[in-house]
Amino acid sequence: MLPKNRIPHFILLFISLTWFSCSTNKNTFTKRDVKKSEKLIGLHFANKDIDTLYPYLKRNRSGFDSLRKYPLGHDVFPAIRFDPTPFGFSMPEQQTGTVWNIPDNVEIPEPYDLLAFYTIPQLASLIKNQKITSTELTKFFLARLKKYQPALQCSISITDSLALAQAKKADEEIKNGKYRGILHGIPYGTKDLMAVPGYPTTWGAAPYKDQMINETATVVKKLEDAGAVLVAKLVSGALARGDVWFNGKTKNPWDTTQGASGSSAGSGSATSAGLVPFALGTETLGSITSPSTRNGVTGLRPTYGRVSRHGVMSLSWSMDKVGPLGRNAEDCAIVFEAIQGKDKNDLTTIDLPFGVDWKKEIKNLRVAYLKKDIEKDTTETGENLRNALKSLKELGIEPTAVEMPEDVPYRGFDIILRAEAGTFFDELVRSGGVDVMVEQDQRSRANSLRQSRFIPAVEYLQANRQRQVLIQKMQDLMKDYDVLISPTFGNDQLLATNLTGHPVIAVPTGLDKKNHPTSMTFVGNLYDEASILLLAKAFQDATSFDELHPPGYID
User: Fold this and answer.
1) In angstroms, rounded to a whole number, what is the distance separating the alpha carbons of residues 53 and 30?
2) Strand partners, 400
3) Neighbour-count burial for 78-92, b at 16+ CB within 10 Å, e otherwise
4) Measuring CA to CA, how many Å separate 326 from each of 186, 288, 550?
């Protein structure tokens, strides 16, 4: 509860509005400026009320100026933290650890370039059985990154020296009998929102293209501890928006006239084209799901708070998640197990074990589906999803028809993301650095950051109250089910689950007539990634959509 003497929140709006609206002196404002600001917030105050307000507004403006004299580091979270747990929620039972099957009968393929599309277990088999060294595999992927970078524009930094040093270490350890596990010696890429010492962390944006952050993101450190080899920092759309970065536009390997979608554009494109076996991405409002779909790979967005964001650029403290993009659900599960867990440097993380029992009978999963949303999609995407449902029914799944929560102000929730992003990038806007970003149109991140200054604190908090209502409604929907099957786009699921923190996995369902990939989404209960991974793997074992790869990337 706020102290009784706390200044009303609408005063904060007037201060921010007058900051931008003064026409003669940017450091002063008049009562007339306050009066003009009323229309932007849909309120009206009598002249006598404005006379009373005016001294407070000037005093608060002085307070704002005082706060701005104390710089804040990028790693400082607000004292108010988001908790996705609804009333009446019971933590799902967790399995500790997963048994990963590393096959013994994997051979070097012919042609050799098919190696680019091997899964993590296949590559692990070659390395563990010393049919290939990590150094050889690393050089192979480094060469592919350099070869296809001009066409795909998917990487920002190719980390040759670091990768070769890590691969050499992996080879020495494996030779000496110190095998760390299934990721040991496996190359990968990470979205360039994640800090890696010695390399720029550009956030995909011109104002930060030379930024060096001398720390290692927790997720990168965890993969290093697992023995994985970092070969590239991959494109993030500028400040985690879209697929345009300061040097170009990342392309979809299936159709290079298309962008790769974003903002984990480089992670989606590079994984799809076989330039890395897997990659890390981030999602606030679709940035793993969308590039996974566009590029035809599998992408896991974990529960909010399952994976540390220490050393990762913030866009929305209460919505950001880190997750893997891979060849299939099993690959995503392998990577997720390695990166999840409590981190003392990220207070939003939770101490909870993770594991998947692949022998569990999927017929025992309680599955629902958004029947109306799926049936109303008359496109080839909808047709592919309905065919996927038939495949699941052949596996013994009998889903129950349900609908997304109604009477929810879905369109108003964007306030939360924009307000938090505007706060993180406050100095960028006030300094004018936002003006050098490549995109400056209405849908650009630059424009979004500028307009965030006009969001009242009251409306931000009201949106979060409505968010709590949505959390409870999603709990009412999901409490009787383990998995909810949904279209990836075209309904409210993507927005809703990003707000509530539920985990999802985007699963390829084939190609449309233009040979563009399509997908469906499995939604799980909070902290129950295991169920959606189990069903996704079963679907992929029974079909071959996850084995498709874009033509033209094998010599």
Assistant:
1) 11
2) 368
3) eeeebebebeebeee
4) 13, 11, 15
Residue 25 pLDDT level (bands cut at 50, 70, 90): low
Q: Render pLDDT for 31-63 as a digit per residue (tens, 0 to 9).
A: 998 888 888 888 898 999 889 988 888 888 888
Q: What is the pLDDT of residues 115-159, one digit of tens each?
A: 999 999 999 999 999 999 999 999 999 999 999 999 999 999 999
Quick one: tokens of 325?
């993009």
Q: Give the angle subtended at the CA of 409 by the CAs of 403 and 412, to the nearest 5°.
A: 135
CA distances from 343 to 37, 74, 193, 311, 537 (A): 44, 17, 18, 11, 28
28-32, 95-99, 115-119, 544-548 — which is least confidently predicted? 28-32
pLDDT above 60 for 24: no
Read off the pLDDT of residues 495-542 as tens digits, 9 standing for 90 and up.
Answer: 999 999 999 999 999 999 999 999 999 999 999 999 999 999 999 999
Can you list the pairs that 96-100 forms with residues at least 24 positions away whose Cβ atoms lie under 8 Å?
96/353, 96/354, 96/355, 97/337, 97/353, 97/355, 98/333, 98/334, 98/337, 98/354, 98/355, 98/356, 98/357, 98/358, 99/358, 100/124, 100/181, 100/182, 100/334
- 14 pLDDT exceeds 70? no
Quickly list H helices, 305-454. Answer: 329-339, 371-376, 380-394, 414-424, 426-431, 445-451
- Judge contact between 192 and 266, C-beta under 8 A: yes
Q: What backbone torsions phi and psi does residue 75 show, to the nearest 5 degrees?
A: -90, 5
How far apart (Å, rounded) are the C-alpha atoms in residues 255 and 258?
A: 6
Q: CA 293 → CA 324, 418, 467, 487, distances in Å?
A: 13, 24, 27, 11
> Quick one: residue 242, left, alpha or beta (phi over 0 = left, psi -120 to 50 = alpha)?
left
CA distance 181 to 157: 27
Please provide the average confidence, as pLDDT, over all residues in the chain: 94
CA angle 279, 541, 129 (to 5 degrees): 60
Q: How far apart are CA 489 and CA 500, in angstroms?
A: 17
Res 35: pLDDT: 87
Identify the three-state secondary structure at position 530: helix
What integer is the mean pLDDT of 17-22?
Answer: 43
Amino acid at 97: G
Q: How far apart are CA 390 and CA 401, in angstroms?
A: 14
With beta carbons less than 8 A apart as the criterion, state whether 518 and 512 touch: yes
Close Cβ partners of 251 (under 8 Å, ≥ 6 residues apart)? 151, 152, 153, 154, 258, 259, 260, 269
Single pTM value for the model: 0.93
Give kind and range of the element (H or E) at residue 487: strand 483-487
pLDDT score at 28: 81
* Helix/strand/coil percentages in the chain, nearest 5: 45, 15, 45
3-class SS of residue 343: strand
Which neighbouring-strand residues pair with 4?
none
Tell me how long the chain is: 555
CA distances from 370 to 300, 358, 421, 497 (A): 20, 26, 31, 14
Q: Which amino acid is at 485?
A: I
Residue 103, Cα to own-chain centre: how many angstroms? 31
Is pLDDT above 60 for 8? no
